[in-house]
Amino acid sequence: MWTLSFISEEDFTKHVKATIEKYGEKLESFDLKRFNKNIVDPIKLIFDKTVYQASWEEIVSNEIFRQRDKSNNNDIGYFHQRIFNYIDKCHVPDNGKEGGWDVIFEKPDGIALPDGSVVHTVYVEMKNKHNTMNSASAGKTFIKMQNQLLNDDDCACFLVEAIAQKSQNIKWETTVDKKKVGHKLIRRVSLDRFYALVTGQEDAFYQMCMVLPSIIQKAVDELEGAIVPHDTVIEELKELAKKQNIDDENLAAAMAVYMLGFGSYNGFT
After folding, report:
1. Alpha-carbon distances, residue 140 vs 12, 125, 147 (angstroms)
2. Which domains are assigned to the chain?
């Protein structure tokens, strides 16, 4: 039985599938050529394997995961942002449109803020994590929000953080041109508090998190033929190790790894 009142099971499943499909080329299988596209560091791999007492399979698998993971945050940002297209009174502007905001929340009968202010529109800039903005980026974002308030005195601007330091909806204070600035209608809000505001349900984000694993699994099962990669790196490395003419199996494997980065170096040729 579907338990979320603010989004239908059909829409939520559709959104999860779209997020998975955004992974795109990262879901393509890794062969040795792709694995070493940017030249891995053989010394680091060998240190990691030995210090962590891992197998070559584990170390190679971890490196493939690391390479895939580098740009996945953008795809999860898509999930956090675009879900609001399915939530009442919210919409997600096309890229660069409507001031470049990530989400706009409009409520004709008013949006009450923690300090007692009431506005009718909230403009949102979304970040995946609280520490991803440097001071220059924070200052630029704050100025953008100030300009929005100058153009519309019936709105608030939120910096919404998916991974905030804690659950909060507070006045955002930052530094612009070496001066500390803040405004009661420019706020720093954790994702759970934003869900609560737009849905009217205090634990809406928690409820979404509770159904998410099963819906992701359902989507992966339905997309299985299209997304499950078959990585061949470890098999190719084993074949290279066999060709090293080294009796010590571990050293032969190490030599195969060395050849990824040092194949043209003196001695290795």
Report:
1. 33, 12, 11
2. 31-70+232-262 (no CATH), 79-217 (3.40.1560)
